[in-house]
């Protein structure tokens, strides 16, 4: 029945409010999931790793407390000001102010704003909690803990630092060794974070704090109609004065000191002191004056300008004098640079040997006996290089779609070298998107047989089970190891989803019960709601090490550190070098070169993920680390003695340092005419060899060096590093005297010598575009010889085969001696026959031989056509029904240039100019092809020539 009460409409539901509640709920769930997931991960880390995880966390927190306290904590409880809360209070005032109110009326004087004492104390603690993460520096925390434990790190030597710029040292590196080296630990690990924290404190509480004070005081005074400009100026002068003084203090912490440093530091400190003095004077005068007189402004600018002119003039005069008296002026400081950098690179420990190169013949009747006598070296010549080994091992994977190669390393077992390829799990491309999660986490959890092995001398693939009894890799490198985690339900019983139906039975990972498993992975809420899940994380060994031992460098010079598979006969491990690195920008005379040291190695179990630490270093950080982690270190196992290898990255860096700082004579160093360099494209070779002075073959790293900037191709010497545990990391350099009559040719020249050999040229034609392998220098008896394998298929081929082995004499006195053979013994025998005159085929070269770069050779070739007004087109490929090769030629050196010009001129006259004004140029590996196209009888033909220009 109709009534007034029934006439009222029911109000519609508040849908907007409902939607807002839903959105808030969703946001809350997302935040809870994210925070909850991170909390679960943190809890899992604590449970799985224990002290291995908590110790780095402890050092990080310690550094946070110390550095943030230095930068942020204020102790002036009488002032009790706060930039942060003053800004909040001012912002609130702006929001609340009326439209008619002026801006200045709402800005309270910063000087008058104070927190209450409890608020002030509480805010100091809160700042640590809010901003402490920005000050996290694990290395500083580590060093601070060591300092607290009584390790001074050379801090007691720091006062000497402030005298270095004002003392002219003797022309002797010993001064730096005595004055600078003892303070290096403090300068690389303690001082830089402290300086940064103090600098930030000055910016906040001297710079920003005082500027805000000046601005707000000015607004207040202006409102009252009595601005005190001189008072403001005095404050600004004080700010700039302190800033300049701080710059002057930081100039003592520099990586370079020379004859001008004292004047720059003195001038900077004088300007800072002058500004402080002016600030004090103006502050006193501001009690009675409000403005600065014009003459005062002139005096201040004139003072700063005068100091700047005096310093600048002194520096300019010194530089002018030093141009003529470089040794007298720069010599003492150059000597200290040499001393400091020889310490940084541990170059004083490099054993230097003079290698007197001789080309001696062997009696024809004694050649076979000589080869037999040196069988210890010849039997271990590394014939198979990385590319050939890779090409030969790759077919061993077959059609398996879920594994791929990750790395291929040279290892030593039973005094024999092997190429050992390690593999990684990958997700087959045929896996659909719907099945991706299941396969990533539960199926492709490991590599069933993770290692393949090839003998580096004879190229035979051997059963990896002979060395690696445990070949299943659950913790490795790359692929799914790097991308994700794996797991399985703890109640799976005999049924396993893992690849091959295997069931992981190791101790890696941990059981995660519900509801923690649901938060870690929401899929487990529905799939395993009441069952624990065993989770295995950090399966990439580098990620695992970086999580638990973040002190070390796992990427060096832009490349991931090389880790090696090793075995104790039962279990397999990854051998990861523990390299520490520090910036030396605060170390005098370091010129920015880093401080790098090998602390030891980590053995990471490839099945369980366990980590053992092994110590080999004896520097300050190694001792600190061993002291803090004494319970984690294990004695060096006997089985590792033969398999251990010095890190190639560290060897290369030390060699680069030696290239410069082997020169200890100041005058020679300044003239820079005896520096070395690593030949372009050359890598460190790990070989079994017997250099001069070695009684038997040893496992060595070898790196050849040339004279920097030299147009010749001769070696200045070569560096070797020992890998046997007793002598691990010992470096020896074999120097070739610059005035030696017999030279030692380098890697670039040895290839030219091989290409010029008539026998090889003929064989090369038969082998059809072979690939030239590594050219490794060996000492066989009294002979320095390069052994170069030649393969009939490259790394892209299905099967790599050895075509021949070349033995090229490294000793050069005007002739090249090249021996070819099916084995290294046969090649060396043929080489000896040529040296002895039994075989007459030799290759000569001019003493003033100069090799051209590949780009130079191609430019010369192009210029020949351009000079003949012929256009060059460079297609990516040529597809012509008929093609005719009209000739082939080698072009490597300046000596080949005339032949090349004549060869191409004849081609132009015979094939190009009669029909066209354009040629086509394209590259195939090391071959440059140039051709011209014309139509005959309705069919296009290309007539071309081939010039080998090399790499």
Molecular structure report:
The chain is an alpha+beta fold. 40% of the residues lie in helices and 19% in strands. The chain has 29 helices and 33 strands. Strand 16 and strand 17 form a beta hairpin. Helix 12 packs across helix 13. The chain is globular and about 105 Å long.
Descriptive keywords:
about 950 residues; alpha+beta; five-stranded antiparallel sheet
Q: What characterizes the major β-sheet?
A: 6 strands, mixed
Mean pLDDT: 87
Task: Name the overall outline.
Answer: globular
Helix count?
Answer: 29
Share of helical residues: 40-55%
User: How many beta strands in the DSSP annotation?
Assistant: 33
Task: Please give the alpha-carbon distance between the first and last residues.
Answer: 102 Å
Proportion of residues in extended strands: 15-25%
- Class inferred from helices and paired strands: alpha+beta
Low-confidence stretches: 1-8, 841-849
Computed Rg: 37 Å
């Amino acid at each position: 029945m109709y009534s007034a009460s029934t006439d009222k409409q029911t109000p519609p539901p508040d849908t907007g409010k409902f939607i807002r509640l839903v959105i808030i709920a969703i946001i809350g769930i997302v935040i809870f999931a994210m925070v909850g997931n991170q909390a679960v991960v943190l809890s899992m880390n604590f449970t799985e790793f224990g002290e291995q995880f908590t110790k780095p966390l402890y050092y990080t927190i310690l550094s946070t407390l110390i550095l943030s306290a230095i930068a942020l904590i204020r102790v002036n409880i009488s002032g009790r000001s706060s930039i942060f809360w003053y800004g909040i209070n001012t912002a609130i005032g702006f929001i609340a102010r009326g439209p008619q109110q002026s801006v200045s009326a709402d800005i309270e004087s910063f000087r008058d704003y104070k927190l209450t004492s409890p608020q002030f104390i509480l805010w100091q603690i809160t700042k640590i909690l809010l901003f402490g993460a920005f000050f996290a520096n694990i290395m500083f925390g580590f060093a601070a803990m060591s300092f607290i434990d009584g390790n001074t790190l050379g801090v007691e030597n720091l006062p000497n630092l402030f005298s270095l710029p004002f003392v002219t040292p003797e022309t002797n590196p010993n001064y730096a060794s005595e004055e600078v080296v003892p303070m290096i630990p403090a300068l690389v690990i303690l001082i830089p974070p402290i300086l940064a924290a103090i600098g930030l404190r000055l910016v906040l509480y001297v710079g920003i704090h005082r500027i805000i004070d000046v601005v707000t005081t000015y607004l207040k005074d202006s409102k009252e109609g009595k601005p005190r400009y001189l008072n403001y100026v005095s404050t600004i002068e004080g700010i700039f004065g302190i800033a300049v003084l701080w710059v002057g203090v930081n100039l003592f912490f520099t990586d370079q000191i020379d004859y001008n440093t004292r004047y720059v530091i003195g001038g900077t400190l004088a300007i800072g002191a002058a500004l402080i003095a002016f600030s004090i004077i103006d502050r006193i005068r501001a009690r009675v004056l409000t403005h600065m007189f014009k003459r005062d402004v002139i005096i201040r600018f004139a003072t700063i300008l005068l100091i700047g002119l005096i310093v600048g003039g002194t520096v300019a005069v010194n530089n002018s004098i030093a141009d003529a008296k470089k040794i007298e002026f720069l010599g003492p400081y150059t000597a200290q640079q040499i001393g400091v950098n020889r310490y940084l690179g541990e170059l004083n420990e490099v054993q230097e040997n003079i290698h007197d190169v001789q080309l001696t013949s062997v009696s024809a009747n004694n050649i076979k006996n000589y080869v037999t006598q040196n069988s210890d070296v010849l039997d271990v010549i590394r014939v198979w290089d990385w590319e050939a080994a890779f090409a030969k091992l790759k077919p061993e994977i077959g059609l398996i779609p879920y594994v791929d190669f990750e790395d291929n390393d040279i290892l030593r077992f039973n005094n024999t070298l092997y190429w050992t390829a390690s593999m990684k799990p990958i997700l087959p491309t045929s896996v659909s998107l719907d099945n991706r999660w299941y396969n990533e986490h539960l199926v492709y959890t490991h590599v069933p047989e993770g290692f393949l092995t090839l003998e580096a001398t004879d190229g035979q693939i051997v059963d990896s089970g002979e060395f690696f009894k445990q070949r299943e890799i659950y913790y490795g490198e790359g692929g799914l190891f790097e991308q994700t985690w794996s797991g399985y339900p703890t109640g799976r019983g005999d049924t396993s989803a893992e690849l091959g139906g295997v069931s992981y039975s190791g101790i890696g990972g941990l059981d995660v019960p519900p509801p923690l498993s649901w938060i870690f992975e929401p899929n487990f809420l529905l799939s395993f709601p009441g069952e624990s899940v065993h989770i295995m994380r950090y399966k990439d060994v580098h990620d695992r090490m970086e999580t638990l031992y973040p002190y070390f460098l796992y990427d060096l010079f832009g490349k991931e550190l090389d880790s090696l598979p090793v075995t104790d006969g039962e279990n397999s491990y990854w051998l990861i070098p523990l390299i520490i690195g520090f910036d030396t920008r605060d170390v005098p005379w370091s010129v920015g070169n880093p401080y790098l040291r090998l602390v030891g190695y980590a053995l990471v179990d490839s099945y369980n993920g366990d980590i053992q630490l092994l110590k080999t270093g004896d520097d300050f950080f190694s001792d600190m680390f061993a002291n803090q982690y004494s319970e984690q270190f294990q004695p060096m196992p006997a089985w590792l003695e033969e398999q251990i290898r010095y890190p190639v990255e560290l060897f290369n860096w030390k060699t680069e340092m030696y290239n410069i700082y082997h020169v200890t004579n100041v005058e020679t160093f300044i003239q820079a005419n005896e520096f070395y360099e690593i030949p372009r494209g050359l890598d460190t070779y790990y070989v079994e060899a017997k250099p001069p002075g070695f009684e038997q073959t040893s496992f060595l790293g070898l790196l050849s060096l040339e004279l920097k900037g030299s147009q010749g191709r001769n070696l200045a010497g070569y560096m070797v590093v020992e890998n046997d545990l007793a002598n691990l990391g010992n470096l020896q350099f074999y120097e070739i005297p610059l005035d030696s009559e017999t030279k030692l040719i380098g890697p670039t020249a040895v290839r030219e010598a091989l290409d010029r050999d008539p026998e090889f040229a003929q064989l090369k034609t038969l082998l059809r575009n072979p690939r030239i392998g590594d050219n490794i220098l060996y000492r066989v008896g009294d002979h320095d010889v390069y052994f170069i394998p030649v393969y009939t298929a490259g790394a892209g081929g299905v099967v790599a085969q050895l075509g021949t082995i070349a033995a090229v004499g490294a000793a050069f006195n005007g002739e090249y001696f090249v021996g070819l053979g099916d084995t290294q013994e046969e090649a060396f025998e043929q080489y000896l026959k040529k040296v002895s005159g039994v075989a007459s085929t030799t290759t000569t070269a001019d003493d003033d031989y100069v090799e051209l770069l590949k780009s130079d050779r191609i430019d010369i070739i192009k210029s020949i056509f351009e000079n003949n007004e012929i256009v060059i087109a460079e297609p990516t490929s040529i597809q012509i029904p008929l093609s005719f090769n009209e000739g082939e030629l080698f072009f490597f050196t300046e000596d080949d240039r005339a032949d090349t010009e004549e060869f191409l001129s004849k081609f132009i006259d015979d094939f190009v100019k009669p029909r066209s004004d354009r040629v086509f140029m394209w590259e195939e590996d090391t071959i440059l092809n140039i051709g011209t196209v014309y139509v005959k009888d309705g069919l296009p033909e290309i007539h071309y020539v081939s010039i080998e220009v090399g790499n």
